[in-house]
Amino acid sequence: MHLSKPIIRREALTAYRRWEPSAFGAAVPEAQPAAAVPDPEAVLAAAEARARAREEARQAAEDAARLAGHEAGYAAGYAEGVAAGHAAGAEQVAAASAALQALAVGWRDAFQAVDTAMADSVLDLALQFSQMLVRQALAVQPERLLPVVEELLREASEAQRPATLRLHPDDVALVREHLGGDCELAGWTLFADANVTRGGCLVQTRHGAIDARLETRWQELTRALERTTPWMAA
Known about the structure:
Blueprint: H1 10-13, H2 40-140, H3 146-155, E1 163-167, H4 169-185, E2 188-192, E3 201-205, E4 208-212, H5 214-224
Parallel strand pairs: 1-2
Antiparallel strand pairs: 1-3, 3-4
Helix pairs in contact: 3-4
Organism: Imbroritus primus
Keywords: Cell projection, Cilium, Flagellum
Protein name: Flagellar assembly protein FliH
């Protein structure tokens, strides 16, 4: 039986390609992996993180602006307060200074009065104590009178001759023993006088007198100290 060949249309021929063997050794392209499908939870977490970051940035900006405004207002208020405080402080300092100055003057006057009173009392006590020491010293060392007589002899001039040297009776023998020759050369006569306190003397000339009695010398000392403490006889 004779089989007839099937009829192939022309349009169908274009849908076919001729098979050609591939060249050996040519690289065969790898199959590309399919794109990974994103995890919905990860996407949501990232979105929430970005939202939180934006909110924190906005809050930080507001806080910074608020702080800046507060600092500016505080600085302005502080400057005004300082100026007002300085003015009020200056007035208070001036008032306090005046009060302290008045108080200082009052204390100074009070202390001066106290110091003066104390100084007077101490000086009077010292003078009384000095009298006691002088009397005791003359009683123990009566020769302390000799330097006084020697000074009077040196200062005596020709016009003061002759002269009488009045002494306490207990001092006459002492002066005669130590200065008798000098008194004789000066033309002085020794005379015992119980009214002359021991330790002192009185030189009498025709022109006047030189009073070196203990009471007189004491008065000169107290007068120099602006005191009137008298010499008290033993």
